[in-house]
Amino acid sequence: MPAWSYPVALLAISVLVLGLETAFPWRRQQRRLRANLGSDLLYLIFNGHFLGLALAALAAPTAGRVLNDVTAALGFSDGLNLRFAADWPLALQVVVVLFGLDFVQWCVHVALHRVPVLWTFHQAHHSVVDGEMDFLVAFRFQWTEVVVYRAVQYVPLALMGFATEALFFHAVFGTLIGHLNHANLAWDYGPFRYVLNNPKMHLWHHDYGAKAHEVANFGIIFSCWDYLFRTANVPDHPPHRIGFAGVEAYPRGIFAQAVFPFGAARPRWATVAGVLLIGALASLAVTQ
If residue 63 lies in a helix (H) or strand (E), which one and from where to where? Predict the structure, then answer.
């Protein structure tokens, strides 16, 4: 796929969901020009495009060589080029990628909440508070969390050899569902709510009052994993408050959040370090 395909799809999906939020707002008192709007726009642009390119440029060559050596040592003469799924029909590849990757992401998401050190990175996403929940926060992720997701998915994707079209469909469809999950919409998709994640369900994932062991609704694209593993919780009313205990003291903005898990003490230095880090990664991505 051309390098510009996903950014164009991201823009189109963002415009579509913005229109839906404007036409059918759930929380009518929520302002469009809200707090941290500029920061979330930067998250959307950086995490939606530049960070993925930068990680690929940094890690793919070395990771590919290592994985190739390991598979070759295990007796696979073609090394990394196993490509188990390469000859499957494209429709089958799309289905396997959608459900397979989503289950892997569901497992990672559970770990981000249950493992304390990982939670320090995931807190950025849960720093969304009342008045901020709209489609833009779908990409509010501290950059190291994106690294965790990409690293876990790298091996199965490299070994399976899925078609680019199947991976692209997963990326675009996942972006659409992610936008809708965080959108200011009172949708649950009726009977399809047991399969697809939805705005009403995901809002409860951001419930301020939930203890660590009570956090529910970890699904990314599909809700079926939560119903299957009994981590679903969808009351018939919205949560009284969103965020997490202590969110009031959590830093605001993409730059401060970029370095906060590493113990940055002063917001000014956090901003400087964050700007340098994000600038370096974006520059690397652009040059590839």
Answer: helix 51-73
